[in-house]
């Protein structure tokens, strides 16, 4: 009989744990939905602009200088993404925006965009997780003063439309990326990068470029993806995925 009682108690405890887990997950999902920032529900944040269907996921990273931050339409800003304009909160940065984020931009979880001077991210750019973009770098001119106490150097950053920035990449002050640039994971980018280039390494260098006559050089090692035929509905794609699974 004691064995049966122990079995019953264990079953009840397991049911309670599962019920508690479901309640915690449901509660956290509610917190995430409620804490997300949109144009309709900006909370305490007062951005210079935040576009239609744009959402900043909760929990937020550090956000300040938002009157000088303009975010376009249909953007997805992941959890714990830092967006800052100016070196510290509560500064008057003048009449013009400092950080401009275009339409259709995706910033991966844990990324940082630090705009002490102007940073521009073009339309349809996609960032992987923990990308770091900064317009400011430490200076170390004076060998007798701690580096953190020396006045930093600032240069504008421009990321052209259609770029893909891989996980853990770093975009340094003064970087200017052209259109449809691929930045490999972990790359450290400075200076100018031409349109339709792939860069990798630290410091990053061009490892592949597209030429209008010769195509990609060096040639791509994998075939191009097969495009989805016209007229195929999302429901058909889902059904195909279930069939292949």
Automatic annotation (TrEMBL):
Pfam families: Hexapep. InterPro entries: Hexapep, Hexapep_transf_CS, Hexapeptide_acetyltransf, Trimer_LpxA-like_sf. The keyword Repeat applies. The keyword Transferase applies. Coiled coil: none annotated. One of its GO terms (molecular function) is acyltransferase activity. CDD domains: LbH_MAT_like. Keywords: Acyltransferase, Repeat, Transferase. Belongs to the transferase hexapeptide repeat family. This is Acyltransferase. It comes from Streptomyces durmitorensis.
């Amino acid at each position: 009989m004691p064995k049966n009682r122990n079995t019953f108690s264990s079953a009840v405890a397991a049911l309670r744990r599962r019920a508690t887990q479901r309640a915690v997950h449901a509660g956290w999902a509610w917190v995430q939905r409620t804490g997300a920032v949109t144009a309709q529900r900006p909370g305490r944040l007062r951005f210079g602009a935040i576009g239609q269907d744009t959402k900043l996921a909760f929990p937020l990273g550090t956000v300040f200088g938002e009157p000088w931050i303009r975010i376009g339409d249909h953007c997805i800003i992941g959890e714990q993404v830092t967006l800052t304009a100016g070196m510290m909160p509560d500064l008057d940065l003048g009449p013009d925006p400092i950080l401009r984020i275009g339409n259709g931009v995706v910033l991966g979880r844990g990324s940082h965009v630090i705009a002490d001077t102007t940073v521009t991210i073009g339309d349809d750019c996609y960032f992987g997780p923990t990308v770091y973009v900064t317009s400011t770098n430490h200076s170390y001119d004076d060998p007798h003063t701690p580096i953190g106490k020396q006045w930093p150097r600032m240069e504008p950053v421009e990321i052209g439309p259609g770029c893909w920035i891989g996980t853990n990449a770093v975009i340094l002050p003064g970087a200017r990326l052209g259109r449809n640039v691929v930045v490999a994971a972990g790359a450290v980018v400075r200076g100018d990068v031409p349109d339709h280039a792939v860069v990798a390494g630290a410091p990053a260098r061009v490892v592949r470029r597209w030429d209008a006559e010769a195509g990609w050089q060096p040639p791509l090692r994998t075939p191009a993806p097969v495009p989805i035929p016209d007229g195929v509905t999302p429901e058909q794609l889902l059904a195909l995925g279930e069939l292949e699974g």
